[in-house]
């Protein structure tokens, strides 16, 4: 139950941290939006219209035909601008072909010869001319005469206002006129146009809107601005009074968004030269709405769009007109921020749920979710765009990317912290070199061991079993813990490492491969262990018990070091004759009343003046006698009585 409580507490403790990561991701998105607003807007628009660029609608637009003043027309008719009589002839030819409506994406500001003939053609052929409001505040241009104002429509929010303009000459006496001024973004791409513009207190429609109004057959048509509060409604709408369902969604700046869902190839184009010489297909122009405009590159009427960097301006008017006829003008709904917030909460919930999975599952799934969520944000925007709803995707995608990345980094740091903690625990149960090696290998059920030339030391607390039997377990554990802690410190200070703790003894090793002084280091450690133990062992043993003492054995030789056991339960061990010999020598420390004994192989690395031979002994379980040595600085164990010492001296002499 305690473990369950700790796990639950850890899970709840991580939630505020995860919420903090989500808040940081939000702050990063807000920071980028304020510091780089133009870049944010540009990439939001480019990515948002990517579907239009990749999978445009290829269905042919049958209602609208572009009559292009192209290179062929300039070659056959003459350089631009053409005489007004030629423009009148072009209008009459289009009427002869049966065009239902003519929209000229051209402004005629100067008075020229032939204006009267052109004016008469405009009056009899149902023609809409263009004019250009200028929104730049420092412009003072006022050329021509504005016309085509909507008498029943008031200048009100959010209709944009212009103070300058380029209009047609009064000699043309144009009655039906629409403006062609687009909104040019910072990257040069045209994405919006105001359907209404207020100039000197009067409202003027766009060319496409004027064409739509002209087709309705009424002279006094009023427009009004309506506001709606629906979830998926646009903030503002231009409503055509008396015509239910004819409305144009606006943003808060009074602009309508262009739809680029149609491929440029879906618009039918006829050369103006073909119309003038009578070779244009009649079935194409009959009963069609005709847009006359320049497409020749040299005339300069080209703009960048999501489809191309050199799109003729007349194509934009064709798109606007097509949008109005279909009622599929893209718009951003009132509660777009709420929709984004809901998606952001859903994305945050997914990240939190995935992060709560097991470490392995979270480590695998979090990077995948981090990559997928931004694409889901773009996918949501793209899906809604098929319903003419422009939601926006970049801020959502950035939030998902930032939040996911922070979660991945946090999970990575958590795993590193856990791995470090596990390694710390592992190295407290195993030698540090063994623990480090385990980090870089996979578990195996095979024998994994290598032969090394080691100096081994076995240190055992004598009489500890009897002490443990008669004393409380807490007291015995405290004594043994103190012995292990201090022994490990001393051994590591002398460049050795403890291989294992077993009962009341320990086994330590010193590598001899590149260190010829390893035996001396082991002997120095043994001497310090004896001195240390005299300070921590009870000075007076409990009544009826023999005093505690420390027996230490040192020997050198080849040793097999590695792991054995099944894959799910490995055991680090040292194997070989050297291990057996050092254990048996340690047992002889009590028999010979010596606190430290050294085997004959280890003695070869020490000076003979430092050692005192104890004789040759046949160690328990072995078949070959071994000569044992004791350091001269350590005397006979005072715990042994004289009779015992005499007996073992006789045994030593007989074995010699």
Q: Could you give the topology of this structure?
A:
Elements: H1 2-35, H2 37-48, H3 50-54, E1 61-69, H4 71-77, H5 84-97, E2 101-104, H6 115-124, E3 127-134, E4 142-143, E5 161-162, E6 164-166, E7 177-179, E8 183-184, E9 190-193, E10 196-199, E11 202-205, H7 207-215, E12 223-227, E13 236-240, E14 247-250, E15 256-257, E16 267-271, H8 272-277, H9 282-285, E17 289-294, E18 302-303, E19 311-312, H10 313-326, H11 336-355, H12 359-385, H13 394-429, H14 432-439, E20 448-462, H15 464-470, H16 473-493, E21 497-502, E22 505-511, H17 518-536, E23 549-564, E24 571-575, H18 577-591, E25 596-599, H19 600-603, E26 611-617, E27 626-631, H20 642-655
Parallel strand pairs: 1-16, 1-17, 2-3, 2-17, 3-7, 4-6, 5-10, 23-25
Antiparallel strand pairs: 3-6, 8-9, 9-15, 10-11, 12-13, 13-14, 18-19, 20-22, 20-23, 21-22, 23-24, 25-27, 26-27
Task: Please characterize this protein's 3D structure.
It contains 20 helices and 27 strands. The strands form 6 sheets. Strands 1, 2, 3, 4, 6, 7, 16 and 17 form an 8-stranded mixed sheet that branches. Strands 20, 21, 22, 23, 24, 25, 26 and 27 form an 8-stranded mixed sheet that branches. It is 44% helix and 22% strand. The two termini are 64 Å apart. By secondary structure, the protein is of the alpha/beta class.
């Amino acid at each position: 139950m305690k473990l369950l409580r700790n796990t639950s507490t850890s899970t709840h403790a991580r939630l505020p941290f995860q919420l903090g990561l989500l808040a940081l991701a939000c702050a990063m998105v807000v920071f980028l939006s304020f510091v780089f607003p133009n870049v944010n807007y540009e990439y939001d628009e480019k990515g948002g219209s990517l579907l239009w660029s990749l999978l445009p609608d290829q269905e042919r637009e049958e209602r609208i035909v572009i009559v292009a003043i192209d290179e062929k027309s300039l070659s056959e008719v003459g350089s631009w601008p053409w005489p007004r009589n030629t423009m009148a002839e072009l209008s009459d030819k289009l009427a002869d072909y049966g065009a239902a409506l003519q929209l000229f994406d051209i402004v005629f500001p100067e008075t020229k010869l032939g204006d009267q003939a052109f004016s008469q053609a405009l009056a009899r052929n149902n023609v809409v001319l263009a004019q250009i409001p200028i929104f730049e505040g420092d412009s003072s241009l006022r050329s021509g005469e504005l016309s085509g104002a909507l008498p029943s429509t008031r200048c009100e929010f959010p209709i944009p206002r212009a103070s300058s303009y380029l209009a047609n000459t009064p000699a043309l006496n144009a009655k039906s006129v629409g403006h062609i001024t687009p909104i040019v973004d910072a990257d040069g791409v045209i994405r919006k146009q105001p359907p209404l513009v207020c100039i000197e207190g009067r409202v003027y429609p766009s060319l496409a809107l004027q064409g739509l109004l002209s087709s309705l057959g009424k002279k006094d048509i009023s427009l009004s601005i309506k506001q709606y509060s629906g979830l998926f409604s646009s903030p503002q709408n231009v409503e055509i009074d008396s015509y239910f369902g004819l409305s144009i969604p606006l943003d808060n700046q009074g602009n309508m968004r262009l739809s680029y869902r149609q491929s440029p190839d879906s618009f039918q184009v006829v050369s103006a030269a073909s119309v003038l010489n009578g070779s244009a297909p009649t079935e194409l122009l009959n009963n069609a709405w005709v847009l006359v405009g320049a497409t020749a590159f040299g005339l300069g009427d080209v703009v960048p769009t999501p489809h191309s960097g050199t799109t003729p301006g007349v194509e934009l008017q064709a798109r606007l007109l097509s949008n109005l006829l279909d009622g599929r003008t893209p718009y951003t709904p009132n509660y777009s921020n709420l929709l984004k917030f809901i998606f952001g909460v859903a994305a945050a919930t997914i990240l939190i749920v995935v992060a709560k999975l097991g470490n392995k599952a979270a480590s695998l799934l979090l990077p995948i979710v981090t990559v997928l969520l931004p694409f889901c944000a773009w996918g949501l925007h793209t899906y809604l765009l098929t319903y003419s709803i422009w939601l926006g995707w970049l801020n959502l995608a950035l939030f998902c990317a930032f939040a996911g990345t922070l979660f991945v980094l946090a999970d990575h740091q958590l795993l590193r912290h856990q791995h470090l903690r596990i390694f710390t625990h592992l190295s407290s149960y195993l030698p540090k070199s063994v623990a480090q090696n385990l980090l870089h290998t996979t578990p195996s059920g095979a024998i994994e061991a290598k032969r090394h030339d080691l100096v081994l030391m076995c240190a055992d607390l004598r009489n500890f079993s009897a002490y443990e039997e008669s004393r409380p377990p807490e007291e015995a554990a405290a004594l043994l813990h103190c012995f292990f802690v201090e022994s490990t410190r001393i051994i590591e200070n002398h460049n050795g490492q403890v291989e294992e703790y077993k009962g009341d003894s320990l086994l330590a090793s010193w590598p001899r491969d590149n260190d010829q002084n390893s035996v001396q280091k082991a002997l120095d450690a043994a001497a310090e262990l004896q001195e240390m133990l005299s300070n921590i062992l009870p000075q007076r043993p409990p009544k009826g018990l023999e005093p505690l003492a420390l027996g230490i054995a040192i020997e050198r030789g080849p040793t097999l070091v590695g792991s054995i056991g099944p894959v799910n339960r490995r055991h680090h061990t040292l194997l070989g004759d050297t291990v057996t010999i050092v254990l048996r020598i340690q047992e002889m420390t009590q028999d010979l009343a010596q606190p430290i004994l050294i085997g004959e192989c280890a003695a070869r690395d020490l000076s003979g003046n430092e050692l005192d031979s104890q004789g040759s002994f046949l160690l328990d379980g072995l078949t070959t006698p071994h000569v044992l040595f004791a350091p001269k600085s350590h005397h006979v164990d005072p715990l042994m009585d004289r009779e015992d010492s005499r007996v073992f001296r006789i045994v030593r002499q007989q074995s010699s």
